[in-house]
Amino acid sequence: MRFTLPFVLVLLLAGCVTTTGHNHPAINKVITGDLAIFSSPNKRFAMYPSVNASYLGRGESSERAISNTKSSIVQIMVEKGYTPVPLSDSPDFIIGFGLGVESKITDDEIFDKAGMVVGLSTEGINQKKFQKGTALVAVFSPGNKEPRWRVLAQGMSHMKKSDGARKENIHTLLTSMLSPIPQAGKALP
Predict the structure, then answer these.
(1) Whole-angstrom distance, CA of residue 99 vs CA of residue 91
(2) Hey, which of 41-45, 126-130, 158-162 has the most confident mean pLDDT?
(3) How many other CB atoms sit within 10 Å of the CB of residue 102?
(4) What 8-state DSSP symbol labels residue 127?
(5) In the chain, where are the structural domains located?
(6) Alpha helices in the chain (DSSP H)
(7) Does residue 66 contact residue 174 with C-beta atoms inside 8 Å?
(8) What is the CATH number of domain 33-177?
(9) What is the pTM assigned to this prediction?
Protein backbone atom coordinates (compact mmCIF):
# COMPACT_ATOMS: atom_id res chain seq x y z
CA MET A 1 0.00 0.00 0.00
CA ARG A 2 2.79 2.45 0.78
CA PHE A 3 4.19 1.97 -2.79
CA THR A 4 0.76 2.25 -4.41
CA LEU A 5 0.03 5.84 -3.28
CA PRO A 6 3.27 7.36 -4.70
CA PHE A 7 2.72 5.41 -7.95
CA VAL A 8 -0.84 6.75 -8.29
CA LEU A 9 0.39 10.28 -7.49
CA VAL A 10 3.04 10.02 -10.23
CA LEU A 11 0.39 8.87 -12.72
CA LEU A 12 -1.90 11.77 -11.80
CA LEU A 13 0.90 14.32 -12.14
CA ALA A 14 1.99 12.87 -15.47
CA GLY A 15 -1.57 13.35 -16.75
CA CYS A 16 -1.46 17.06 -15.87
CA VAL A 17 1.68 17.99 -17.82
CA THR A 18 1.20 20.65 -20.49
CA THR A 19 3.10 20.19 -23.73
CA THR A 20 3.86 22.78 -26.37
CA GLY A 21 4.60 20.43 -29.22
CA HIS A 22 1.04 20.05 -30.49
CA ASN A 23 0.00 21.33 -33.91
CA HIS A 24 -3.15 23.18 -32.82
CA PRO A 25 -2.41 25.44 -29.87
CA ALA A 26 -5.35 27.02 -28.07
CA ILE A 27 -6.91 30.24 -29.26
CA ASN A 28 -8.61 32.58 -26.81
CA LYS A 29 -11.06 35.21 -27.98
CA VAL A 30 -13.19 38.02 -26.59
CA ILE A 31 -16.30 39.26 -28.41
CA THR A 32 -18.19 42.44 -27.66
CA GLY A 33 -20.82 44.56 -29.35
CA ASP A 34 -24.19 44.43 -31.02
CA LEU A 35 -24.96 41.89 -33.73
CA ALA A 36 -27.88 44.07 -34.87
CA ILE A 37 -25.53 45.73 -37.33
CA PHE A 38 -25.82 42.50 -39.35
CA SER A 39 -29.63 42.46 -39.33
CA SER A 40 -31.58 42.38 -42.57
CA PRO A 41 -31.40 44.27 -44.91
CA ASN A 42 -27.77 45.14 -43.96
CA LYS A 43 -25.94 42.94 -46.46
CA ARG A 44 -23.42 45.25 -48.13
CA PHE A 45 -20.01 45.73 -46.56
CA ALA A 46 -16.73 47.41 -47.39
CA MET A 47 -13.27 46.78 -46.10
CA TYR A 48 -11.27 49.69 -44.80
CA PRO A 49 -8.83 50.49 -47.60
CA SER A 50 -5.90 50.05 -45.25
CA VAL A 51 -5.23 47.95 -42.19
CA ASN A 52 -6.38 49.69 -39.02
CA ALA A 53 -3.26 48.54 -37.17
CA SER A 54 -0.35 46.31 -38.00
CA TYR A 55 2.20 45.31 -35.41
CA LEU A 56 3.91 42.58 -37.38
CA GLY A 57 7.09 44.28 -38.41
CA ARG A 58 8.01 45.07 -41.96
CA GLY A 59 8.59 42.89 -44.96
CA GLU A 60 7.04 40.53 -47.42
CA SER A 61 5.83 38.07 -44.77
CA SER A 62 3.87 40.81 -42.97
CA GLU A 63 2.37 42.05 -46.22
CA ARG A 64 1.25 38.50 -47.06
CA ALA A 65 -0.35 38.10 -43.62
CA ILE A 66 -2.28 41.35 -44.11
CA SER A 67 -3.36 40.38 -47.63
CA ASN A 68 -4.39 36.86 -46.51
CA THR A 69 -6.36 38.31 -43.61
CA LYS A 70 -8.27 40.73 -45.83
CA SER A 71 -8.98 38.03 -48.44
CA SER A 72 -10.19 35.58 -45.79
CA ILE A 73 -12.52 38.12 -44.18
CA VAL A 74 -14.07 38.93 -47.57
CA GLN A 75 -14.40 35.21 -48.44
CA ILE A 76 -16.03 34.33 -45.10
CA MET A 77 -18.49 37.22 -45.33
CA VAL A 78 -19.41 36.32 -48.94
CA GLU A 79 -19.98 32.70 -47.84
CA LYS A 80 -22.37 34.08 -45.21
CA GLY A 81 -24.30 35.88 -47.95
CA TYR A 82 -22.93 39.41 -47.57
CA THR A 83 -21.87 41.48 -50.57
CA PRO A 84 -18.56 43.34 -50.73
CA VAL A 85 -18.76 46.82 -52.21
CA PRO A 86 -16.31 49.71 -52.53
CA LEU A 87 -16.29 52.16 -49.63
CA SER A 88 -17.59 54.81 -52.06
CA ASP A 89 -20.82 52.78 -52.65
CA SER A 90 -22.34 53.53 -49.21
CA PRO A 91 -21.97 50.11 -47.55
CA ASP A 92 -24.23 49.08 -44.66
CA PHE A 93 -21.16 48.42 -42.52
CA ILE A 94 -17.39 48.62 -42.72
CA ILE A 95 -14.93 45.98 -41.56
CA GLY A 96 -11.48 46.79 -40.27
CA PHE A 97 -8.81 44.61 -38.72
CA GLY A 98 -5.53 44.73 -36.89
CA LEU A 99 -2.76 42.19 -36.47
CA GLY A 100 0.14 41.99 -34.06
CA VAL A 101 2.79 39.79 -32.53
CA GLU A 102 3.99 39.95 -28.96
CA SER A 103 7.42 41.31 -29.88
CA LYS A 104 5.74 44.37 -31.48
CA ILE A 105 2.75 45.06 -29.17
CA THR A 106 2.05 44.11 -25.56
CA ASP A 107 -1.27 43.17 -23.95
CA ASP A 108 -1.26 46.53 -22.15
CA GLU A 109 -0.86 48.37 -25.46
CA ILE A 110 -3.65 46.26 -26.99
CA PHE A 111 -5.92 47.19 -24.10
CA ASP A 112 -5.07 50.88 -24.49
CA LYS A 113 -5.84 50.80 -28.22
CA ALA A 114 -8.75 48.33 -28.41
CA GLY A 115 -10.27 48.54 -24.95
CA MET A 116 -10.18 44.77 -24.62
CA VAL A 117 -7.57 42.11 -23.99
CA VAL A 118 -7.49 38.33 -24.04
CA GLY A 119 -4.36 37.98 -21.91
CA LEU A 120 -3.14 34.65 -23.29
CA SER A 121 -0.24 33.46 -21.17
CA THR A 122 3.06 32.53 -22.78
CA GLU A 123 4.31 30.72 -19.70
CA GLY A 124 5.90 27.41 -20.63
CA ILE A 125 5.91 28.24 -24.36
CA ASN A 126 9.09 27.79 -26.37
CA GLN A 127 9.64 31.42 -27.43
CA LYS A 128 12.09 30.33 -30.14
CA LYS A 129 9.37 28.34 -31.94
CA PHE A 130 6.22 30.28 -31.05
CA GLN A 131 5.20 33.88 -30.61
CA LYS A 132 1.89 35.14 -29.27
CA GLY A 133 -0.16 36.58 -32.10
CA THR A 134 -3.20 38.86 -31.85
CA ALA A 135 -5.95 39.55 -34.36
CA LEU A 136 -8.75 42.09 -34.05
CA VAL A 137 -11.74 42.37 -36.38
CA ALA A 138 -14.01 45.37 -35.86
CA VAL A 139 -17.26 46.30 -37.62
CA PHE A 140 -18.29 49.93 -37.90
CA SER A 141 -21.39 51.80 -38.99
CA PRO A 142 -20.45 54.25 -41.76
CA GLY A 143 -19.39 57.55 -40.27
CA ASN A 144 -18.77 56.19 -36.75
CA LYS A 145 -15.33 55.93 -35.20
CA GLU A 146 -16.38 53.45 -32.51
CA PRO A 147 -16.99 49.86 -33.59
CA ARG A 148 -20.46 48.36 -33.22
CA TRP A 149 -19.10 44.80 -32.96
CA ARG A 150 -15.61 43.39 -32.52
CA VAL A 151 -13.69 40.27 -31.75
CA LEU A 152 -10.15 39.98 -30.41
CA ALA A 153 -8.28 36.67 -30.57
CA GLN A 154 -4.89 35.52 -29.38
CA GLY A 155 -3.02 32.32 -30.05
CA MET A 156 0.49 31.00 -30.42
CA SER A 157 1.96 31.44 -33.88
CA HIS A 158 4.56 28.96 -35.08
CA MET A 159 7.50 30.95 -36.40
CA LYS A 160 8.66 28.46 -39.04
CA LYS A 161 5.41 27.61 -40.88
CA SER A 162 5.20 27.63 -44.66
CA ASP A 163 3.23 30.38 -46.40
CA GLY A 164 0.49 27.89 -47.30
CA ALA A 165 0.15 26.71 -43.71
CA ARG A 166 0.06 30.31 -42.45
CA LYS A 167 -2.65 31.22 -44.95
CA GLU A 168 -4.72 28.20 -43.87
CA ASN A 169 -4.21 29.06 -40.18
CA ILE A 170 -5.30 32.67 -40.76
CA HIS A 171 -8.46 31.49 -42.52
CA THR A 172 -9.27 28.98 -39.77
CA LEU A 173 -8.74 31.63 -37.09
CA LEU A 174 -10.93 34.17 -38.89
CA THR A 175 -13.66 31.59 -39.48
CA SER A 176 -13.77 31.05 -35.72
CA MET A 177 -13.62 34.77 -34.97
CA LEU A 178 -16.45 35.62 -37.38
CA SER A 179 -18.65 32.63 -36.47
CA PRO A 180 -21.07 34.71 -34.35
CA ILE A 181 -22.01 36.80 -37.39
CA PRO A 182 -25.31 35.41 -38.71
CA GLN A 183 -25.99 34.45 -42.30
CA ALA A 184 -27.15 37.50 -44.29
CA GLY A 185 -30.91 37.94 -44.08
CA LYS A 186 -31.33 35.56 -41.13
CA ALA A 187 -33.06 36.65 -37.95
CA LEU A 188 -30.76 37.36 -35.04
CA PRO A 189 -30.82 34.93 -32.13
Answers:
(1) 24
(2) 41-45
(3) 21
(4) T
(5) 33-177
(6) 4-15, 60-79, 107-114, 163-177
(7) no
(8) 3.40.50
(9) 0.76
124 vs 49: which has the higher pLDDT:
49
Distances (CA, A) of 165 to 12, 29, 67, 110, 168: 35, 21, 15, 26, 5
Cα(67)–Cα(148) distance, integer angstroms: 24
At a CB cut-off of 8 Å and minimum separation 6, what does 83 contact?
A: 43, 44, 45, 184
Q: How many CB atoms lie within 10 A of CB 103?
A: 12
- Residue 132 three-state SS: strand
Query: Distances from the Cα of 39 to the Cαs of 42, 92, 184, in angstroms?
Result: 6, 10, 7
Provide the pLDDT for residue 81.
Answer: 95
User: Ranked by mean pLDDT, which of 21-35, 49-63, 80-94, 120-134 comes out on top?
Assistant: 80-94
**Which of 188, 186, 130 shows the shortest CA–CA distance to 157?**
130
- Nearest alpha-carbon partner for 62 in 153, 131, 122, 148: 131
Compute the residue count for the chain: 189
Buried b (16+ CB within 10 A) or exposed e, 151-181: bbbbbbbeeeeeeeebbebbbebbeebbeeb
Cα end-to-end span (Å), the chain: 57
Using CA atoms, how far apart are residues 136 and 40, in angstroms rounded to an integer? 24
